[in-house]
């Protein structure tokens, strides 16, 4: 009896281990399911951890890097924020831009999460065809005495599953919002100038965080 | 005195960035706007933000929710009027239902029972109504003390002031107290957002302007703005990357 169960368990384990390797990307979680899973997991982790609830920056950044980052396509995000200028950038410049932009967004996301105080989420049903490869996943944050805030994730289907390439908070697209700033900085001092400005911004954020 | 300062600041910035060639077409008044923005920022740092932070420290979250609910409730009838002016009769009617329930069952509006009943709070004002009627935003405009706006919303803002229930409140000192409390509550609700803005923006002025214009456009279309042609172009960028 015992051996049968053990055999069953090991067979199941093998099956589970084998599945992600064998299954084509199409069978991975849908974009709406993914957003809901990640959101609830992150919120749950914050609720359980006193440091995270207290806004501990280092721990928040670690949490984001572990749970949220893998679901974003930062190359797409950076390309969209750069617009026309993306094509003019060399592969090396593209890599550095993506890295710096990613760092800035993670820092910003950490302070947004630090502001989280048990608001309720409403996950909207996905309005898309199964064949769509570019969808908007809608989440709403409910708060007393105010209109709910819409958080929409622009998501694209990639070989590695669904990845977010834009976040729209209350109708404000993060990517579109950076576009004007980036365009102006590139006009003023070129792509290298923009990279330098992003580096400077990230360094000043880290310096400000170190101060008590 | 106040205006003297603004004018002075405007002149200073005009001198500093009168290049002109780099001007955003949506923001032809940028030098003026930047000056007012700087002035507002100074006032905010010196008065509004410290007051809001003190209020948040002293007043418990539960009480702040009641204060927010109260002012949100007295605004609902006018939100209903704007919904009706925009042809959304059902939404307008529901706003008035919210006001009826919250003013009675919700004890003068301090409890948002309507939301719990599934009557969702809306966000409407005269600027949005004009937008719905097809009136364009006109140039971006930073108002002294009140911040981001545009010519259309600035005209709407005057309408909002006239329609504000607090304008009727007498005696005057009670009225000023109510204005002060509402402003403090609003600023307190924005504390986190303004902190995030500081972190996210390379240039706060540009970032806030673009966020305002995007936000208002989204509000005019109740969260479902038609896609801009510009955005379609960028989709091309993405695929040809």
Please characterize this protein's 3D structure.
The complex is a heterodimer of chains A (212) and B (241). In chain A, 61% of the residues lie in helices and 16% in strands. Chain A has 212 residues and is an alpha+beta fold. Chain A has a five-stranded antiparallel β-sheet with strand order 1-2-3-4-5. The radius of gyration of chain A is 20 Å and the shape is globular. In chain B, strand 1 (140-143) and strand 2 form a beta hairpin. In chain B, helix 2 (30-58) packs across helix 8. Mean pLDDT of chain B is 86; it is low at 1-19 and 229-241. Chain B is mainly α and 241 residues long. Chain B is built from eleven helices and two strands, in the order ααααααββααααα. The relative contact order of chain B is 0.10. Chain B has a two-stranded antiparallel ribbon. Chains A and B meet through helix 5, helix 7, strand 5 and helix 8 of A and helix 3, helix 9, helix 10 and helix 11 of B.
Name the features.
heterodimer; A: alpha+beta; 5-stranded antiparallel β-sheet; 8 helices; globular; B: 241 residues; mainly alpha; two-stranded antiparallel ribbon; 11 helices; disordered C terminus
Largest sheet of chain A at a glance?
Answer: 5 strands, antiparallel
pLDDT below 50 for ≥5 consecutive residues: which ranges of chain A?
A: 17-27
Which two chains touch over the largest interface?
A: A-B, 43 and 41 residues
Average of per-residue pLDDT values of chain B: 86
Distance between the termini of chain A: 61 Å
Query: What is the number of helices of chain B?
Result: 11
**C-alpha Rg of chain B (nearest Å):** 20 Å
The biggest sheet of chain B amounts to: 2 strands, antiparallel
For the termini of chain B, the CA-CA separation is 55 Å
Described by the principal axes of the CA atoms, the overall outline of chain A is globular
> What is the percentage of strand-forming residues of chain B?
under 5%
Neighbour order of strands in the largest sheet of chain A: 1-2-3-4-5
The tally of helices of chain A reads 8
Round the Cα radius of gyration of chain A to an integer and report it.
20 Å
Query: How many strand segments of chain B?
Result: 2
Share of helix among residues of chain B?
Answer: 55-70%
Question: Averaged pLDDT of chain A, please?
Answer: 84
Oligomer: heterodimer
How much helix, percentage-wise, in residues of chain A? 55-70%
Instruction: Please write the string of helix (H) and strand (E) elements of chain A.
Output: HHHHHHHEEEEEH
């Amino acid at each position: 009896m015992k051996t049968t169960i053990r055999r069953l368990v090991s067979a199941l384990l093998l099956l589970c281990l084998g599945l992600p390797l064998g299954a084509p990307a199409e069978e991975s979680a849908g974009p709406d399911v993914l957003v809901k899973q990640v959101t609830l997991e992150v919120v749950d982790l914050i609720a359980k951890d006193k440091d995270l609830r207290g806004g501990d920056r280092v721990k928040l950044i670690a949490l984001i890097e572990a749970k949220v980052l893998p679901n974003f396509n930062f190359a797409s995000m950076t390309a969209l924020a750069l617009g026309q200028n993306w094509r003019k950038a060399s592969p090396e410049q593209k890599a550095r831009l993506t890295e710096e932009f990613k760092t800035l967004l993670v820092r910003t996301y950490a302070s947004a999460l630090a502001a989280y105080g048990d608001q309720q989420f409403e996950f909207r049903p996905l309005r898309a065809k199964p064949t769509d490869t570019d969808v908007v996943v809608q989440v709403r944050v409910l708060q007393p005495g105010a209109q709910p805030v819409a958080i929409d994730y622009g998501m694209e289907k990639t070989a590695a599953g669904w990845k977010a390439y834009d976040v729209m908070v209350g109708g404000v697209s993060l990517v579109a919002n950076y576009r004007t700033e980036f365009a102006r900085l590139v006009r003023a001092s070129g792509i290298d100038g923009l990279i330098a400005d992003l580096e400077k911004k990230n360094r000043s954020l880290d310096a400000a965080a170190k101060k008590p | 005195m106040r205006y003297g300062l603004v004018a002075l600041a405007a002149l200073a910035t005009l001198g500093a960035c009168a290049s002109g060639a780099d001007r955003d077409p949506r923001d032809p008044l940028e030098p003026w706007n930047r000056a007012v923005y700087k002035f507002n920022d100074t006032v905010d740092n010196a008065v509004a933000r410290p007051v809001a932070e003190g209020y948040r420290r002293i007043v418990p979250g539960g009480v702040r929710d009641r204060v927010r609910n109260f002012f949100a409730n007295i605004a609902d009838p006018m939100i209903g009027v704007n919904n009706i002016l925009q042809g959304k009769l059902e939404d307008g009617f529901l706003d008035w239902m919210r006001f009826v329930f919250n003013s009675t069952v919700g004890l003068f509006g301090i409890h948002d029972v309507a939301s719990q009943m599934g009557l969702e709070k809306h966000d409407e004002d005269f600027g949005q109504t004009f937008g719905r009627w097809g009136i364009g935003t006109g140039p971006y405009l930073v108002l002294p003390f009140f911040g981001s706006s545009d010519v259309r919303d600035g005209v709407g803002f005057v309408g909002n002031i006239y329609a504000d229930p607090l304008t009727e409140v007498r005696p005057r000192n009670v009225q000023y107290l109510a204005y002060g409390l509402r402003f403090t509550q609003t600023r307190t609700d924005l504390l986190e957002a303004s902190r995030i803005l500081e972190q996210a923006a390379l240039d706060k002025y540009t970032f806030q302007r673009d966020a305002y214009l995007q936000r208002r456009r989204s509000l005019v279309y109740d969260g479902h703005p038609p896609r801009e042609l510009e955005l379609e172009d960028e989709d091309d960028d993405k695929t040809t990357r």
